[in-house]
Each structure stands twice: as C-alpha cells, then as structure tokens.
Design brief:
Elements (H helix, E strand, L loop, with lengths): L2 H40 L13
C-alpha cells in the first residue's frame, strides 16, 4: 500500500468517525430536548403557537 493510499484511507476513516459522532450527538440531544419538552408540557407550560388550549 502506498503512502498516498494510506493517507486517503485514514482521511476517509476519520471522516466516517466524525460523521458518526455528529449523528450520535444529534440523536442524543434530540432525546434530551424531547424529554425537556415533555417535562414542560407536564408542568402546564404551552407553546404560544399551540392554539388548542385556547377557547
């Protein structure tokens, strides 16, 4: 394997690791935000855009 092929393989591997990390971070943060929203809704806090609570 040439030095160039090793460099390209390492670059693709690092890119895949970084992308996987970002996707994981997004999914973990999404769960946390959904949990926060559920806690707020359970406490009675509603969004201003939610018109169903008004008569």
């Amino acid at each position: 394997m040439s030095a160039h092929a090793l460099y390209v393989t390492a670059a693709y591997t690092m890119t895949a690791v970084v992308l996987a990390g970002l996707i994981g971070w997004i999914l973990i943060d999404q769960r946390a935000r959904k949990r926060d929203l559920a806690e707020l809704e359970a406490a009675g806090v509603r969004r201003r855009s939610d018109k169903s609570g008004k008569s």
